Amino acid sequence: MTTKAAKASVWQKSWFILQSLVTKDFKLKYRRSVLGILWSVLNPLLMMVVLSAVFSMFLKWDNIDHFPLYLILGTILFSLMQNSTTAAMYSILDAAPLIKKVRVEKMIFPVEKAVFELVNFAISLVAVVLVMLYFRVMPTVNLVFLPLLLFYVVAFSAGIGLLLSALAVFFRDICHLWGVVITAWTYGTPIFYPVTLLDPFMQQIMQLNPMYHYVFYFRDIVMWNTNPGIKENLICFAMAAITFLVGYLVFRKSESKFILYV
């Protein structure tokens, strides 16, 4: 078999494993559920209703038009990153029995979690459409940027997932620490509140938060009919590319030792 044919065979095998893992995760997620896949639509809607009631009625943030839409856009995009990175962190540990028995591309396991959550995100967009219809917010041509945004977020999430999955093999404390980090990150991103609530210094610091850029990119193209522009796209791309590269390099450097620690 030639080198080219061997590489093609490896890619075919990896693609088959990726598809199988995504299918398995879907079956596990909705197993014994009456509503099944509808929960991917209902969950963001129910969360939006609860959070809208809390933040609109008690904190009275009236300066954000269509606050429930503002809220659901932030929550579902942040959840894409949160769920994929958290699941990816455990992916190598959970796949230990398979890794010990079969020679397989280990990077598939954390990357699959980002792909799986992307599919869930696509389903949850139905909830966004329903909220847009309720508020009579019409889609615009700027929605053509959505695939580009999802590329950024999935690459960014996969990079963090690769890093966490590698670290978790050697340091189990990462699994506990990440829960604290992701909670702080949630409240440190303007998902539930307007960025103008922060003082100018903190608004400058916020520019270093990748999820701030991704969330507002999403709101720009859905709510505010704003073209993100070349500068914002370059920032989003750079953050995703650097994160993925770091995660990839750490994962590749340490994967040969996984079998000794899982």
UniProtKB/TrEMBL annotation:
CC terms in the record's Gene Ontology section: ATP-binding cassette (ABC) transporter complex
Entry-linked Pfam families: ABC2_membrane
Subcellular location: Cell inner membrane; Cell membrane
Chief location of this protein within or outside the cell: membrane
Topology within the bilayer: Multi-pass membrane protein
Gene Ontology biological-process entries: lipopolysaccharide transport
The organism's place on the tree of life at top rank: Bacteria
Entry's Gene Ontology molecular function annotations: ABC-type transporter activity
Keyword terms, alphabetized: Cell inner membrane, Cell membrane, Membrane, Transmembrane, Transmembrane helix, Transport
Segments forming domain ABC transmembrane type-2: 35-254
Membrane-crossing segments per the record: 34-58, 70-93, 114-137, 149-170, 177-196, 232-251
Protein family according to the UniProt entry: Belongs to the ABC-2 integral membrane protein family.
Name the UniProt record assigns to this protein: Transport permease protein
Organism, as annotated: Candidatus Aveggerthella stercoripullorum
